[in-house]
Design goal:
The protein is mostly helical. It contains 16 helices and no strands. Helix 4 packs antiparallel against helix 5 and helix 8 packs antiparallel against helix 9.
Amino acid sequence: MKEKQKSRLFYGYIVAAAGFWVWFIGFGIYGTFSVFFVPVSTDFGWTRADTALASSLGGLMMGALALIMGWLTDRLGPRFVVTFFGSFFGIAFLLLSRTTEWWQFILSHALISAIGISTASVPIMATISRWFIKKRGLISGLVQSGVGVGGFIICPLTGWLITGYGWRTAYAVLGLIGLAGVVVSGLFLRRDPSDMDLQPDGTGDGIAIPTKTLVACQTRNFRGCILKPSKSSHTGETFSAIPPARISLITRLMDHHVIDLLFLKSTLNRAKAARTSPPSKPKYMGLKNSSPNSERLSQKTTISRPRKTAKMTITARIRSNQWMERI
């Protein structure tokens, strides 16, 4: 009963909800710049160009910082990146509520706020792509819908706060909401389902296959060794018996969408064709039988090639066995 209760709610949906909340708060609050534009520029007497420069520089910095946040996500994980760097977003709006100079407004909105909002795009979507395979498009769309929902709710709320309490109070309230919302949501993020002994989409037999192993299984050497027939099948005329252990492993990999049915069929057909067709003679360009030296050279070349191929085959089989032990 406990196992059934645990399987009812897949933790990937909690990760998706946290991502939606980050997009909802982050982009919803970041889009309120147009609501603050008139009261802030009027209060300080700035021109439209001076005030709009903060938004232009903020967009440029957000695009540049997205590359850095993606690299940090691979190194440190989304939980640390969103929790730590995402807090800059709320801090920026708290500083905006205390702005007295134009350079302070530019620094808070164009740099500090851009650091925080850049954690909402790449780190969140990279995490979603690890937790979902079949429903990746649907879940990604639901997470990104937080932009529209956040703008629909937070922008009118900001206008009401500015009208009733002033733009400084509105900045302070949004800063507290952004700081608490992004930090709390980031605590629910996990890098990979294998960290919690889970599978993407909540499927599988309960034995986690890490993402690195799934990537390794995509290589041609691994698949070739997995689908290689047993020694007893070399005497037959057709590609036959695969060991039962490999059949079980192939079934698991197909369930996890590592090996698809079309690839399995094409690999079996190629192996069958390779067994039935006679071996082709190697062709050596530029070698002539006019002298004894050329014959010796051709013999050396002919002997060295099978050794190299055998060495490559042994290396590939060793690597595949290591990947099989991880699974």
